[in-house]
TrEMBL record:
GO terms for molecular function: hydrolase activity; metal ion binding. The keyword Transcription regulation does not apply. This is Succinylglutamate desuccinylase/aspartoacylase family protein. Its cofactor is Zn(2+). Pfam families: AstE_AspA_cat. CDD domains: M14_ASTE_ASPA-like. Coiled coil: none annotated. Keywords: Hydrolase, Metal-binding, Zinc. Residues 50-229 form the Succinylglutamate desuccinylase/Aspartoacylase catalytic domain.
Length: 374
């Protein structure tokens, strides 16, 4: 890493941001049909003091907006006079998708997050990726990329990270995110390409598309604050770490459980997103309730991703299940009881509820609400 030099440095993208300056820029990454620039909103907070460079980004998938709120708050919150090093905040990476409120780049449905590091003469997505990568990502020492589930599903708060990479491992620890799913990521993913090139990036997954979910946004902001504190970038930072963290290895079994029948879905798991082998996850029924198809867990598992749209066709994903051990189960339970799982926000159906546990969860949520929690 090129961090911790003696003197503060200007941040160069193709212009320069001086030490002590916070600058909001609209940076051109492409053109519209009308020949007007497509610009991504970027805030560069360049600290008065020397230190490492942190890259933060959101909405590389245009409908994943929890992270957009994290970016807005980070850009507003941190003062360059206090900052050691630089924070580069890329508020919205996929601006055409963001405008269309959709995941991919419109018209040809290209996924920018499969085209890194990009090429000058490639597809539209690849050209955008190249500008983003060259101008901002590659100039930073490490980064966090904020995602949510795709629309009509939700995902619990967790990190995705290449835990084989030492820099990534350290960064995951610094974030204080309780759960991590280990894996290098698909080829062309920003985090994978950047990590391989020496800028470790961790994906932060949280919640649903097209929503602001306040608890998750707070957790995301705390992860940023924790990274600033761990790297001595912000003296006033107040880190908060969970008592428990867990890495789910890629060798652990994980599977999307899919519907085999069209119909209406009623979730039966809950209140915590953990199921035992053979336990009913949900029931898919026809409109007359003549046919009811019970979907059970093929192994003891943690529901990392959950369908949020109750209408399904055969083949539609219902839940993303990751296998867990008995130890994992206890740890996950402790974590969510502490975090207050219900506050994850837009939980449409909680399914079966144990009144005692529910009362405890609500109490945990209330405590968070009154004592300021994090
Ligand atoms: Zn995403």
């Amino acid at each position: 890493m090129s961090s911790h030099l003696d003197e503060p440095r200007p941040f160069r993208y193709d212009a320069e941001v001086d030490p002590g300056e916070k600058r909001h820029i609209d940076y051109e990454v492409g053109e519209t049909y009308l020949g007007k620039p497509v610009e991504i909103p970027v805030t560069i907070i360049n600290g008065e003091h020397p230190g490492p460079r942190l890259f933060l980004s959101a909405a590389i998938h245009g409908d994943e907006v929890n992270g957009v709120k994290v970016m807005q708050e980070v850009a507003d919150r941190y003062d360059p006079a206090q900052l050691h090093g630089t924070i580069v905040v890329a508020h919205v990476l996929n601006v055409p998708g963001y405008i269309a409120q959709q995941r991919y780049l419109p018209i040809y449905d290209q996924d920018i997050n499969r085209t890194f590091p990009g090429t000058e003469h490639g597809s539209t997505a690849s050209r955008m990726a190249k500008v983003i990568y060259d101008r901002f990502v590659s100039r930073c020492d490490f980064g966090l990329d904020f995602h949510t589930s795709t629309r009509n599903r939700m995902t619990v708060f967790h990190a995705r990270a290449d835990m084989e990479d030492e820099g990534v491992r350290r960064l995951v620890e610094q974030t204080g995110i309780p759960l991590t799913i280990a894996g290098a990521g698909a080829s062309g993913m920003m985090r994978r390409v950047a990590t391989e090139a020496g800028t470790p990036i961790v994906t932060v997954e949280m919640g649903e598309a097209n929503r602001f979910q306040p608890l998750l946004i707070d957790l995301g902001l705390q992860a940023v604050e924790n990274v600033l504190a761990a790297n001595e970038m912000y003296p006033d930072a107040e880190p908060v770490y969970p008592e428990f963290t867990k890495v789910l290895r890629s060798s652990d079994e994980k599977r999307w459980i899919r519907a085999d029948h069209g119909g209406l879905v009623e979730m039966k798991w809950g209140p915590l997103p953990i199921v035992d082998e053979g336990e009913t996850i949900c029931v898919v029924s026809d409109h007359y309730k003549r046919e009811q198809h019970v979907v059970t867990a093929p192994f003891d598992g943690f529901l990392v991703g959950i369908l949020a749209n109750p209408r399904v066709l055969p083949g539609h994903p219902l839940v993303h299940l990751v296998s867990i051990t008995e130890d994992d189960r206890e740890a996950i339970r402790d974590t969510y009881e502490r975090v207050g799982f219900l506050r994850h926000g837009t939980f449409h159906w909680m399914g079966r509820t144990d009144p005692d546990r529910l009362a405890r969860l609500l109490a945990a949520d209330d405590r968070r609400g009154t004592d300021g929690g994090d």
